[in-house]
Amino acid sequence: MSEHNILGAILAGGQSKRMGQDKLFLELNNRKLIEYTIDKVKKYLKNVIIITNQKNQFFLKKNLITVEDCIKGQLGPLVGILTAMKWAKENLKDCSWIATFPCDTPFFPETIIQKFIEKSKEKDSLLLCASSHGRKHNIFGLWSIDLYEKLHDDLINNKIRKVQDWIEKNKITNVEFNFKEYDPFFNINTLDDLEAAKKIIKNEKK
């Protein structure tokens, strides 16, 4: 399964302040943290880019397309989403959707990508986001490119910075996921989180 009208965008523009070092390339079970997301997304989507302001040899060696924020100033994930939309409009004439994923959530279910693909064909909503047990995971989103002008205006003129603030202004469809043992949307922000992730992998191998 490889959808041509969906661009996969992995958001990797954070500063890793809580980690104290660049978390993208930390090792988790002999793989770099960002590789978990890259491998899952590339399995289902033909076109994938990394939104990052870094110049790292890892991306070059993996033959990955990296795109810098289209608006400078560390303005948060919304700028990354806008950047992906802008890149798609300029480079992929058949692209209608942007599927966004964080770079630090190694256990997210691959079924979310499949659900995004299915929902994009239904065309019931311009914006879909994942949720689990009442908690929204807004970076896991499917965004119609038709939202580009509105998002650009809200970022520039209305100074909206938080993803949650923006999606509350727009019609959103939640894609619900349930879990039993641990939250698969658990993201790694600190060294303690990294240790917790290692324990999850260890337990899964038992």
Structural domains: how many: 1
What pattern of helices and strands is seen along the backbone? EEEHEHEHEHEEHHEH
Label the CATH architecture: Alpha-Beta Complex
Total of DSSP H or I helical runs spanning 4+ residues:
7
Radius of gyration: 16 Å
Strand percentage, roughly?
15-25%
Helical residues, percent = 25-40%
What do you see in this structure?
- With 206 residues, the chain is α/β, with parallel strands linked by helices.
- It has a single domain (3-204), classed as Alpha-Beta Complex (Spore Coat Polysaccharide Biosynthesis Protein SpsA, Chain A), CATH 3.90.550.10.
- It is 35% helix and 24% strand.
- The protein has seven helices and nine strands; from the N terminus they run βββαβαβαβαββααβα.
- The protein has helices spanning 33-44, 57-61, 77-91, 111-122, 148-156, 163-168, 191-204, and strands at 3-11, 27-28, 31-32, 45-51, 65-67, 97-102, 127-132, 135-144, 173-177.
- The strands form two sheets. A seven-stranded mixed beta sheet has the order 5-4-1-6-8-7-9, with helices on both faces. It has a two-stranded antiparallel sheet with strand order 2-3.
- Helix 3 (77-91) crosses helix 5 (148-156).
- The longest helix has 15 residues, at 77-91.
- The protein is globular and about 45 Å long.
- The two termini are 31 Å apart.
